[in-house]
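Design review, sub-item: ligand-bound model
Attendees: FS, YL, KQ
YL presented the inputs for the zinc ion complex:
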Amino acid sequence: MSRCPMCGTELGPELSPARPFCSPRCKKLDLQNWLDGVYRLPRELVPEDLSGLSDDEQAELLARIARNQPEG
Ligand SMILES: [Zn+2]
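KQ shared the predicted structure:
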């Protein structure tokens, strides 16, 4: 048994397409927190982070990443 790291919902035996999150919504919230620097995870964005997002959402997030890149 595992829990969604975003909201703590217990995850059932069926695999969520957004795992380890319970839903695409929690996955998106986590990604937004990451982009906002809340977590400051020392990792690169991976394609899986964008899976489940609409094209518009992906474009928005990628634009935010571009703006967050340090100069140079
Ligand atoms: Zn959740």
